[in-house]
UniProtKB/TrEMBL annotation:
Name of the featured protein: Ribosomal RNA small subunit methyltransferase A
Organism name: Paenibacillus enshidis
Catalysed reactions, semicolon-separated: adenosine(1518)/adenosine(1519) in 16S rRNA + 4 S-adenosyl-L-methionine = N(6)-dimethyladenosine(1518)/N(6)-dimethyladenosine(1519) in 16S rRNA + 4 S-adenosyl-L-homocysteine + 4 H(+)
Gene3D superfamilies to which the protein is assigned, alphabetical: Ribosomal RNA adenine dimethylase-like, domain 2 (1.10.8.100), Vaccinia Virus protein VP39 (3.40.50.150)
Compartments in which it is found: Cytoplasm
Amino acid sequence: GLEDIATPRRTKEIIQRHGFSFKKSLGQNFLVDQNILQKIVAAAGLDETKGALEIGPGIGALTERLARSAKCVTAVEIDQRLLPILDEVMAPYDRVRVRHGDVLKLDLKEVFAEDFADVEKVSVVANLPYYVTTPILMKLLEDKLPLENIVVMIQKEVAERMAAAPASKEYGSLSIAVQYYSEPKLVCIVPHTVFIPQPNVESAVIRLRVRPEPPVQVPDEKHFFEVVQAAFAQRRKTIANNLKSRFFTKENKDALEPLLRSADIEPSRRGETLSIEEFARLSTLLLEAGY
Ligand code: SAM
């Protein structure tokens, strides 16, 4: 049989034979390391009954491994030039379906209905294009797709922000958004040397275990995330000052401190110290008071 795609030798061979040139603007850094692939696939907990959705298959380094571990794989690739290559290298794997398109524009509910009708659980597994990591992950989470895990290679700093705990310097609105929908866990830090070409940033694999229910009850999700955004608007300011600028006027600003105290939050604290539970209490009380 053929050597795996994710070796420097076979990757270079495929790329040269097809005259493929990397597009930096599409975040094209291909994996050429069996070990890292093994860790990514293991973290997803796939088996013969489950489906995998891959975003950006490239020349199929990860796709091939997914095809050996899941019941069916759908891979969405934006770069038309990769389609004939994928056609060739995926020929031995009839459980793989390649779709051409921009994942941000795709109706994922429709893809799920068409491709994953006979699997019970689906995970997203991908080495993401770094220029659109956050929009892709937020789309996957906000669309409330029936996902089990999201296991992705992303920029290390972004992974650390997603998994950050209150009061750490990485903690911010992204941490809360991700943790509202999932339980993040950093799987491993990844050196530049496992990619062709090598990216300029450090990478990490993160697993988001998608929650069946949010960890806190809020009356209005949009309002909750507005409060979170406001709290982090100026990191050096207190929660009271940040909320005042966003939700209050000169005339009614005195109403804020009693509201904060009834949510059991000291007005002099900074937003970055508030837990997701505290943000939920705060959003609820503000909304009930008409803010
Ligand atoms: N999975 C391959 C691997 O690990 O070797 C390639 C990973 S590479 C970091 C990212 C891939 O995502 C590229 O193939 C790129 O063309 C594709 N891509 C970039 N933007 C995309 C988008 N909006 N929708 C779908 N695919 C995209």
